[in-house]
Amino acid sequence: MKSLSRILSAAGLAVGLALTAVPADAQQKQAPAAAPALKPASPAAIAAAKEILAMKNASAMYASAVPNLVEQTKNVLLQSNLNYQKDLNEVAVIVAKNLAGREKEIGEGMAQVYANEFTEQELKDLVTFYKSPLGQKLLASEPRAIQFSMSYMNQWAQNFAEIINGQFRAEMKKRGKDI
Question: Which first-to-last residue range defines the signal peptide (predicted)?
Fold first, then answer.
């Protein structure tokens, strides 16, 4: 589960970095993208979805969302208000405290998404599967398999880039241009 937490933390960091890449002015001018409309789900479907997410330890993915977003917002504000650094640092603590626990909204939303993508029976079947020996093995092994898959894809991309580079050089050499 530690590797799942690391993968999920890395994913959260990537999302956070993507959010900070947008200038503050652009964030303010653009209307937030509307979330897709989700069909209503039964309480049993939501419960099964929450159980699946709990088994997958999905909360690790968003556990630090509030403090991370508060910190990112503070850093954006600091860029144009350097003389308020002390105040912004103090206010960040207050804001984080005021908004603590709001990350649970992410879990609720994720459960709604699962309940939208799967029928109630499918969710119940997934719960049964994840409780089975094979399901437990999947839960335990999948983070490592994902990590190794990502590593393999990166290595493949590096090797393939060398092949592409070699073909570019060969084609340019045919044109009498060494690069």
Answer: 1-26
